[in-house]
């Protein structure tokens, strides 16, 4: 089924005027548009807004992510609840650790007071030996004994026991000290949440990113490992001590210690292979990451420098953590108002934002109701995560499912007419960046070029021009020699110059928009990066676009 109806009477008059102007310079007739049925005709505004978009306010949702937008109050409200719950969880672990470490250290100190004597010369024992020698000499004058003058040497078993137990005491005290210091970390993090503006939300984001980047939660949850090591060292020293005193008791204690150690290792390694295993220890997650080599995937970057990327980080967290529908809708609107940059895309892909936005879009489309703010904002928001091909495989699968059979964007004719332009722009972007095969459908031959000329929304119009640039390059036309192969680089998730290429790509699109907005475009010299050879009626620039008509 075709996308467009023939132009309205006023639109036809405008087109006739353009054709007459083109005829004066020898321009061939335009490509015919596909016929459409009257039952499903998309109506577009007659007037074209030629205002150049402001880079600081993308689209109609820019006010939703302003510094004084209500979404930041929602963010801070959720941040207070989340930080309070996190502090409660960590403090409960630290309190139990402090109690255990204190009791264990006290018990171990009692053992050490007694065993430490074996490292020193026992004066009482020397006195007893001298008395025994004196009594012997008095009764055996013919065979007197001479006291030994050898230096004192502690036994090997005494050294082992003292070494193991003193090491155990140090590990226990380290865990207690770490727990007390960690409690101050938690208090500082949770007590700094206040206010309701973007400045307050930005400060919280900065602290929260630091918490993730430097793995504060992992460090706190790993402190019990020190007490576990202390217990193992104490058990080993006890085995050595009892082996010296009684072999049978030593063997029995060795068996019990080995059993405990095997159970501990088993409960640590078992979750590494079975994610649903309830038998976990603080080292289970470390072993899993070590075995499967996914340490890098869990690393967090430093706090982004750009304000828009910082807002994207905050909104990603809000979408991921909130379960309230109103809060999610407010966050989606705020995401839709961000600037279209790769830094914003990278921050949005940190969590499950793609899945959440796709879910909101699919739900709104399935209602088959007139366009709502939720539907429009979810479309604009999803455009932010297809500036380049996402490097996150789950996000790529979610986005690709939108344009496949059964997806919300598979047939844009079922989308509300008020948002069909945005839906087509999003669908085209997903097809170009996430499909291996180059598109050959009429979407890139007629629909998108027409919208690049007639779309009344300046932001969407720039995005359609970007689509034309990408689809034109996909045809590898010899008439166009851009500084970069935009499509291939933006599809390559590992490209080192991706940011540079995207900036140049946006610059090319803005150049095309400026030419389109000029009232005397027939007399304007084309931009150096835009081809000007054989002409098809592309509306805003004059070029041969073999890939998009």
TrEMBL record:
Bilayer-crossing regions: 94-113, 164-182, 218-241, 247-265
Keyword Cell membrane set for record: no
Organism: Mycena albidolilacea
InterPro entries for this protein: DUF6535 (IPR045338)
Protein name: DUF6535 domain-containing protein
Any Pfam family the entry gives: DUF6535
DUF6535 domain residues: 72-243
Region Disordered, residue ranges: 15-43
């Amino acid at each position: 089924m075709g996308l467009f109806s023939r132009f309205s009477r006023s639109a036809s008059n405008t087109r006739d005027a353009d054709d007459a102007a083109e005829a004066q310079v020898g321009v061939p007739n335009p490509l015919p548009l596909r016929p459409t049925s009257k039952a499903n005709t998309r109506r577009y505004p007659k007037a074209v807004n030629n205002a150049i978009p402001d880079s600081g306010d993308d689209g109609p949702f820019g006010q939703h992510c302003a510094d004084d937008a209500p979404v930041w109050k929602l963010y801070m409200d959720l941040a207070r609840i989340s930080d309070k719950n996190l502090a409660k969880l960590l403090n409960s672990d630290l309190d139990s650790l402090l109690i255990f470490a204190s009791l264990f250290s006290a018990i171990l100190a009692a053992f050490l007071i007694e065993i430490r004597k074996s490292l020193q010369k026992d004066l009482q024992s020397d006195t007893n030996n001298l008395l025994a020698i004196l009594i012997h000499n008095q009764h055996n004058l013919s065979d007197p004994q001479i006291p030994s003058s050898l230096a004192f040497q502690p036994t090997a078993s005494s050294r082992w026991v003292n070494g193991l137990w003193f090491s155990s005491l140090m590990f226990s005290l380290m865990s207690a000290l770490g727990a007390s210091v960690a409690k101050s970390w938690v208090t500082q993090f949770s007590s700094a949440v206040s206010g309701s503006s973007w400045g307050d939300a930005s400060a919280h984001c900065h602290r929260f990113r630091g918490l993730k980047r430097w793995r504060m939660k992992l460090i706190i949850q790993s402190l019990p490992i020190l007490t576990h090591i202390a217990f193992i060292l104490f058990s080993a020293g006890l085995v050595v001590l009892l082996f010296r005193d009684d072999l049978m008791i030593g063997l029995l204690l060795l068996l019990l210690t080995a059993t405990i150690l095997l159970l501990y290792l088993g409960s640590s390694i078992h979750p590494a292979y079975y994610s649903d295993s309830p038998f976990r220890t603080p080292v289970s997650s470390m072993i899993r990451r070590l075995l499967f080599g996914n340490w890098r995937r869990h690393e967090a970057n430093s706090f982004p420098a750009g304000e828009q990327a910082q807002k994207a980080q905050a909104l990603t967290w809000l979408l991921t953590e909130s379960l309230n529908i109103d809060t999610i809708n407010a966050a989606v609107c705020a995401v839709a108002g961000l600037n279209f940059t790769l830094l914003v895309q990278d921050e949005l892909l940190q969590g499950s934002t793609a899945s959440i936005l796709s879910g909101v879009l699919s739900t709104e489309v399935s209602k088959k109701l007139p366009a709502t703010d939720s539907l429009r904002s979810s479309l604009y928001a999803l455009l932010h995560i297809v500036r380049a091909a996402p490097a996150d495989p789950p996000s790529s699968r979610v986005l690709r499912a939108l344009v496949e059979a059964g997806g919300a964007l598979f047939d844009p004719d079922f989308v509300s007419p008020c948002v069909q332009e945005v839906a087509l722009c999003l669908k085209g972007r997903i097809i170009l960046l996430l499909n291996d095969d180059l598109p050959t459908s009429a979407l890139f031959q007629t629909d998108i070029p027409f919208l690049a000329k007639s779309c009344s929304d300046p932001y969407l119009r720039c995005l359609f021009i970007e689509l034309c640039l990408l689809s034109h390059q996909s045809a590898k036309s010899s008439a166009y020699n851009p500084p970069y192969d935009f499509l291939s680089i933006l599809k390559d998730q590992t490209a080192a110059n991706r940011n540079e290429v995207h900036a140049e790509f946006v610059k090319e699109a803005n150049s095309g928009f400026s030419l389109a907005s000029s009232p005397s475009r027939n007399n304007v010299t084309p931009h150096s990066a835009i081809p000007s050879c054989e002409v098809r009626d592309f509306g805003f620039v004059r070029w041969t676009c073999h890939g998009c008509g």
